[in-house]
Specification:
Strand content: under 5%
Radius of gyration: 20 Å
Number of helices: 11
Amino acid sequence: MSVDLIMWAAFWIVVIAALFVDLIILSKHKGHLTMKEAAVMVCVWVGLAFSFGGAIYLVFPREKALEYVTAYIVEYSLSVDNMFVFLLIFSYFAIPKHHQPKILMYGIIGAVILRFLFVFAGVQLINAFTWVIYVFGAVLVFTAVKMIVKKDEKIDPSKNIAYKILKKIYPFKADNGTDKFFLRENGVLYATPMLAAVVVIEMSDIIFAIDSIPAVLSISRDTFIVYTSNIFAIIGLRSLYFLLSGLAAKFKFLQYGVAVILLFVGVKMLISHFYHIPTAVSLAVIVGILAVSIICSKADNRQ
């Protein structure tokens, strides 16, 4: 068995075990986590991701390990922005906190499947058509500018196309006292806010993938590096969500930082055929942007 196959096998074993622990064993808290508990769980999942990066460093060339760490940080920072969107979705549909973990579970499983499809499609496209990298770069730059210019624009889940289709298929019953996706009354099957939230989040996963996959492809074209960094950024998102739900107001500039990171990786893709920015430099720039956004947020909170 080759080293590549061994690492793929090790990756799937770790991921399946981690998802089992996160989605099955740790789901008993029903969303009632203290900030300290959520922070500890986030640190455990991040530690697991970096431990896998250590394994990559030992097995593959040093450059691959740098690519993995850089890609992971980019994807995790994008996941932070995604969690703010999830907060808005849960608020719009008035999903009780003890029902949110169930929806997040479906969101995470959907993200794992979608990233698998998007990663392999993206790598194949870039390898087959080199000009696609310019399209990906332009998409990231456009997204970044939109995030910066329209930062105060409120996301309205009711305008989500998947939600509109759902309402045309099933009558909607605004019952937030149930964790079921459907309710049957007088022979009529109704969709609940739980199903609506899942549908909107799964659609959001597709939109997030359109941003995140080009972003990580600016770091590496290696399918193993791209996919593993993506999935490790997804593992433990439920813990990250519960941590951010209590810290959202304290890191108001973090989302601007994410937008600047997208702008940077977009420009990196657009100039890739003329100038290659070393992975180590990319890592330093990305970490620096995140650090500045966090420091600015803390400084603003003290005023």
